Amino acid sequence: QVQLVESGGGLVQAGGSLRLSCAASGCIFSINAMGWYRQAPGKERELVATITSGDSTNYADSVKGRFTISRDNAKNTVYLQMNNLKPEDTAVYYCNLNAKRRYSTPTYDYWGQGTQVTVSS
Fold first, then answer.
1. Please, which pLDDT band fits residue 103 given cuts at 50, 70 and 90?
2. DSSP labels, 32-76
């Protein structure tokens, strides 16, 4: 089985920083991209940031300039450095893995259980 283990969530004050980590393990043939999504109360899950195997990155407009996504290919781990956090960043953050299975052409999406990030005023 493919498993995603997330860590780094917590409670911080506005203007503070957190770093989220997500380590992927299991039967992964190749990784296409990893990323972070979040879901706030009463809202749908939205993309926060993604990074491809070629290190191309994509950020939501609301986090550009504040969040940085990075990866460690040797450890199959993706990080999200979150600086200057705002109350509107409060949400459950989910790690996402887009990977190719052996003997299969399409890629598949795997999800972590989520980690709570709460930013107080």
1. confident
2. EEEEEEEE-TTS--EEEEEEETT--EEE-TTTTTTEEEEEEGGGT
Instruction: Express each pLDDT in 19-63 by its tens digit.
Output: 999 999 988 888 899 999 999 999 999 999 999 989 999 999 999
Handedness of CA 33, 118, 10, 84 (dihedral sign): positive
Q: What token pair was written down for 62?
A: 């609301």
Residues 95 and 34: beta-carbon distance below 8 Å: yes
Nearest to 96 by CA among 82, 78, 83, 72: 78
